[in-house]
């Protein structure tokens, strides 16, 4: 498994990258909030050679407008991962499905995944649609062993110390890059990208 964190404005822009393979950065919320630290938080991950993901916190309102607001603020590179943070109590399964579909249509070359906790996945979701992968929050289970039977791609297993820690269901960073659509590089000697890549895609 690979290790990573997710950060927002509550976290430092100078977080440690030691031992990490990927970082998800909060960019937007609704249609009016942008994380003031997202650029420097993203740049820190890039300088360390980590896989970069961006996420949007979904609020009630227009799903299309929120997807556009999110995408308009990002200069996407090949291999960047996009994520929907679904945890607002007034946002329902049909809303997240519309957001996922719109963002995937606007950024078809990028993986679009769903972040949610077990309560939302079991009790609010009705379609099993998590786009290109499920990012499940379950801090009550050991890293890499979340309490879901559905194939998962990322597991947020700890919130300790105010830092969200995650694992990804890949053996090597090269496998994660290949899944994300990044161009092949030679900067990770010995990092074999030919192994099995987990199936984490979700149904429509």
Automatic annotation (TrEMBL):
Q: Which Pfam families match?
A: Glyco_hydro_25
Q: Where is this region: Disordered?
A: 181-204
Matching InterPro entries: GH (IPR017853), Glyco_hydro_25 (IPR002053), Glyco_hydro_fam25_subgr (IPR018077)
A molecular function GO annotation:
lysozyme activity
SUPFAM superfamilies in UniProt? (Trans)glycosidases (SSF51445)
Any one biological process term the GO annotation gives: cell wall macromolecule catabolic process
Composition bias type Acidic residues, residue spans:
185-195
Q: Please provide the record's keywords in A-Z order.
A: Glycosidase, Hydrolase
What PROSITE patterns does the annotation carry?
A: GLYCOSYL_HYDROL_F25_2
Give the family from UniProt.
Belongs to the glycosyl hydrolase 25 family.
Q: What is this protein called?
A: Hydrolase
What species is given as this protein's source? Streptomyces mashuensis
């Amino acid at each position: 498994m690979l290790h990573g964190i997710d950060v927002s404005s509550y976290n430092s822009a100078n977080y440690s990258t030691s031992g990490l393979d990927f970082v998800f950065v909060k960019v937007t919320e609704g249609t009016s909030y942008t994380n003031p630290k997202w650029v420097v938080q993203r740049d820190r991950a890039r300088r360390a050679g980590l896989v970069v993901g961006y996420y949007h916190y979904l609020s009630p309102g227009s799903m299309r407008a929120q997807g556009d607001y999110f995408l308009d603020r990002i200069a996407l590179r090949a291999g960047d991962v996009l994520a929907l943070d679904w945890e607002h109590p007034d946002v329902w399964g049909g809303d997240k499905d519309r957001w996922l579909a719109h963002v995937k249509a606007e950024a078809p070359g990028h993986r679009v995944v769903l972040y949610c906790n077990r309560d939302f996945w079991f009790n609010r979701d009705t379609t099993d649609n998590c786009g290109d992968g499920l990012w499940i929050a379950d801090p009550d289970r050991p890293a890499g062993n979340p309490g879901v039977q559905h194939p998962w791609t990322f597991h947020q297993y700890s919130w300790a110390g105010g830092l969200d820690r995650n694992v990804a269901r890949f053996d090597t960073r090269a496998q994660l890059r290949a899944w994300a659509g990044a161009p092949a590089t030679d900067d990770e000697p010995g990092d074999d990208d030919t192994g099995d890549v987990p199936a984490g895609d979700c149904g429509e």
